[in-house]
Amino acid sequence: MSGLDSGAAERRRQFAEEARSERPDLALLCLLLGAEAGPVGPAEVVPVTPGEPVPDPYGIDAAQIELDRLAGLLPYGSRSPAGWASALAELLGERCGFGGSSADYQRLDSSLLQQVLRRRRGLPILLSVVWIEVARRAGAPVYGVALPGHFVVGFGDREHPVLADPFAGGAPLTGQDAELLVTGATGAALEPSMMVPARPLEIVLRILNNIRAWAAARPERTDVALWAVELSLLLPSHPARLRYEHAQLLVQRGEFLRGAAEMEEYAAILAEIEPTTAENIRRKAHAARALLN
What we know:
SirB1_N; alpha+beta; Protein SirB1 N-terminal domain-containing protein
């Protein structure tokens, strides 16, 4: 992860520290992730006096303020889980226009919380993050539900949750609706384990996986693939194979020595359990070093 400027290195340090905290802050992690894509445009930041430096260039503070503002728009008072779901749908889905469409899957900014708050469009998981963070600030019993292929939110009793689909503007989901979503995505039946509330780090890793998939379909965007993998590696729990993916990206980007060294390190880990795979990776490391000649 060399080559980072001091600001980027500090954001990475903060991301790693937050990910390892006792209660990781989902919004902060998503905003630090979003900052990897670069500063928000000049028209998207708070206006300042000419000549003064632009504050909050990555929109982190502004996004937190917007989440607080949206939470403050919810009607005050206790309500049932169904009442919370209805209030969030009315505010975020109807009044504010948060939702998604198939076109949003083609945009990187659909996975960046700052941009989702600005555009009010995004992938199901990012729209769910908005719902979770706004509802949590208002005191709602809310959590994410990571159904295969489609992320939604739940309210109340986790054995019998009230489900809503932020991608569809907060449309309520019955158990049968959830079953159809899962069957459509996987061909399998809905399992009780699929309804377990998603933890913040699981949500962040799923977002990073989406970004990696977006970049994989665009070979010219190895820059995005690289930071998505590097952030994934900062999480306390991540697939070991990401180390090999990181090494491959380094080679693709011309960092042959670093990529080869990381391949060899990964091969050493695999040697005891998958010797054939380890040997294949060593050969690729050798080939990467040869590209310097």
